[in-house]
Amino acid sequence: MVDERLVEEITKRVLERLGTAVPELNTPPEGPPPGFVPVGISNRHLHLSKEDLEVLYGPGAELHSMRPLSQPGEFAAEETVILVGPKMRCLGAVRVLGPLRKTTQVEVSLTDAYLLGVIPPVRPSGQLEQSESIIIVGPKGALHHKSGLIRANRHIHMHTRDAQQIGVRDNQTVQVRVPGERPLLFEDVQLRVSDKFATEMHLDTDDANAAGISQGDLVQILTE
Questions:
Q1: N or C end of the chain, less CB within 10 A?
Q2: pLDDT tens for residues 168-180?
């Protein structure tokens, strides 16, 4: 059997001779620098109430998790629906996100909205009064909601400790700088602070494409 201590010593000497620092074993990876947050890109999706899920998928229907999302307890479900606009223009295979909510909410980008033939307002999650109407079609039934379709505002989910570290608070709006070859500045980005959140900025596909950023890229919160 090879002596592990001998292997470690040989490795150390080889790396020293090559001028390479010896890596520390079991060292946890460093997180983003203070004030920098990763980006999560949201495609079109919807959140359903239990009542609406049963209309679309049948009595007693439940959501089935396909994969977890970055926010604790949230997941992309196997279930999808078709969205139909007022001129019978459709978007298919729109993913349902779980868990279920008290109120159904549909979120699309401006490009999606043009395809549907509607112009939904930009709103924080949950503010659905006088938002756009939408028809939702599932395998067992359909719904016509007179409101519930929005374009989500630019926002950052932030854990309380991260907010305290950079001196920001819940519901504060900030500027966010996107670095790179074509730097860009986002204005009026809402902070949502909670012990239950994982820190991440959420952008729709239009904003992400305009900024030239990908899932997991880091952006900088400007607090002054």
A1: N
A2: 999 999 999 999 8
d(CA 132, CA 120): 5
**Domain boundaries in the chain?**
43-152, 154-222
Domain 154-222 has CATH 2.40.40.20: yes
Q: Please report, as a single letter, which amino acid is at residue 23.
A: P
17: left (phi over 0), alpha (psi -120 to 50) or beta: alpha
Nearest to 149 by CA among 171, 183, 118, 173: 118
Using CA atoms, how far residue 77 sits from 48, 90, 117, 142, 150, in Å, is 11, 20, 26, 19, 20
pTM of the shown model: 0.83
CB atoms within 10 A of CB 163: 21
- Identity at 12, one-letter amino acid code: K
Burial label for 19, CB within 10 Å (0-12, 13-18, 19+), is exposed
Q: What is the pLDDT of residue 6?
A: 67
